[in-house]
Specification:
Helix content: 25-40%
Bound molecules: S-adenosyl-L-homocysteine
Strand order of the largest sheet: 3-4-5-6-9-10-11-12-13-14
Length: 365
């Protein structure tokens, strides 16, 4: 074990846990609250910077705990302003995060695992396999690093921040850490990004969809569909063999019944040229959703190509036709604009690619 392994990562503790940790060291509870605010509100990544703490306490913390565990290896800037961060865990595994500025909000796309165990044929991350699940602290840190990079340490973002769990990994195979991170991130004395501003995407881990349905302070949910029939979905997303469409959409129906005002529920459908984008498949998709009495919106995502993947994005006219067929059958449909394709920051392109030609690394930290 390295030195780092033995020290406790304080960014992964809730405020209550941090207070308890501090009290156990004989310090008063308010020191715990102070440290929580320093980590998550002031977004400080080392104890030395917490100059409002007594020097002796800072030194003691340095020995027993850490305020940051991820290191930024490289950073890429897209022509559209999207930033991609390639980071490493303390045990040297890749973690990727994407910061997407928009006119009225910023979106941070975080990873829930290093690599991914699912074998979706259209996604580059699948080729890494699962390296390991990330800890709550490693999930929270991605948000801190992205905000500090965009605006400066602790600076208040000028726009609202949305979070999406659509980076590397399957969030619902790391459910407990994910939910814990969501709660830490939502703390009003910390980052204060509320669950309504977060969306978690799953390839369809049915038991966790049911579990999320019972959680009150939950993030929004997105389901990656990619195919309108079991036959096609088995091929594109092998997880479908475990939880086929009827079971998945049954759980979605139950989830949809529990939606409260302000919560969002969507389906994601990656558009692969000549594979899943025909008129017939659009009708099948609409019928499937209508048959299960689902009202959630469908987001069409043109495939983001990457060299080893055997697909091309559907042409814009095909996407529009697909959309109009869905809409003619009462399915609300939205076409997602790809961001950061030129730096391999778009959906399905995260696989620790650094050697690709033309990537402009900004700075190694
Ligand atoms: N494992 C989760 C979250 C990561 S994928 C899930 O499957 O939902 C996030 C989204 O990116 C999914 O909707 C997925 O369908 C989409 N995606 C994956 N590869 C893609 C690619 N090459 N082009 C466009 N979208 C892709």
């Amino acid at each position: 074990m390295t030195e780092m392994d033995k020290r406790i990562n304080l960014t992964g503790l809730s405020q209550a846990e941090l207070v308890e940790f501090i009290e156990q060291t004989g310090e008063p509870a308010y020191r715990g609250r102070q440290i929580f605010a320093a980590l998550h509100h002031r977004r400080l990544q080392n104890f030395a910077a917490m100059t409002d703490l007594p020097k002796a306490l800072r030194e003691r913390l340095q020995e027993t705990a850490t305020a940051a565990t991820l290191t930024t290896e490289s950073r890429y800037l897209s022509a559209d302003g999207t930033r991609r961060f390639l980071m490493k865990t303390h045990d040297n595994l890749p973690v990727e995060t994407v910061f997407i500025p928009e006119e009225h909000r910023d979106t941070i796309c975080f990873s829930s695992q290093s690599g991914c165990p699912l074998q979706c044929t259209f996604c580059l991350t699948a080729q890494l396999g699962l390296l390991r699940s990330l800890t709550p602290g490693e999930i929270v840190e991605q948000v801190i690093i992205a905000l500090n990079d965009a605006y400066g340490v602790g600076e208040k973002p000028p726009r609202g921040t949305n979070l999406v769990g659509m980076g590397a990994g399957e969030p619902f195979l790391n459910f407990d850490s994910l939910i814990k991170a969501v709660r830490i991130i939502a703390d009003p004395q910390g980052l204060f990004i509320v669950p309504h501003r977060m969306t978690v995407s799953t390839a369809g881990v049915v038991p966790r969809i049911r579990e999320l349905a019972a959680i009150p302070d939950r993030p929004n949910l997105a389901i990656s569909l990619a195919a309108p029939t079991n036959e096609m979905r088995d091929e594109l997303m092998p997880i479908n063999k475990k939880w086929p469409l009827e079971e998945l959409l049954g759980a979605c129906r139950e989830f949809e019944r529990t939606l409260k005002a302000g919560e969002r529920f969507t389906f994601e459908y990656v558009m692969l040229d000549g594979v899943n984008d025909s008129d017939e498949q659009a009708r099948q998709l609409a019928n499937l959703l209508n048959r299960h009495d689902l009202h959630a919106r469908v987001n069409l995502i043109p495939h983001n190509p990457a060299d080893p993947l055997p697909y091309q994005p559907s042409p814009a006219t095909r996407v529009e036709m697909f959309k109009s067929i869905l809409e003619s059958k009462g399915v609300r449909t939205f076409v997602r604009r790809p961001r950061g394709r030129d730096i391999f920051a778009a959906c399905g392109q995260l696989a620790a690619v650094t050697q690709s030609a033309g990537l402009r690394a900004l700075r190694s930290a």
